[in-house]
Amino acid sequence: MQKYNRFYNKIVIVPKLKSEPLGIVIVESGWGSMVPTVVLANMCPSGPAARCGHLNIGDQIISINGISLVGLPLSSCQTYIKTFFLKQSI
């Protein structure tokens, strides 16, 4: 998963168990955003995304497993994230 904020880009690997959800809620970044993508809106405190310690609420998610989320509708981004549900890391 690649995240973006206005200061830097960072690649984050989120280790998780197979069939374990990431434990995140995403929303669209909005019309005023420099990069039209999705934003991490909430995390389950016990979920893999929070446990990895490298993601924060408000981070923009640019890509997931090499697939760009830039310019895609929220539903497509959610589908890509759910596609990797059976992977052990994202």
From TrEMBL:
InterPro entries: APP-Binding, PDZ, PDZ_sf
Signal peptide (from-to): none
Sorted UniProt keywords: Repeat
Pfam family, one: PDZ
Domain spans labelled PDZ: 11-82
PANTHER family in the record: SYNTENIN RELATED (PTHR12345), X11L, ISOFORM F-RELATED (PTHR12345:SF16)
PROSITE patterns, per the entry: PDZ
Protein name: PDZ domain-containing protein
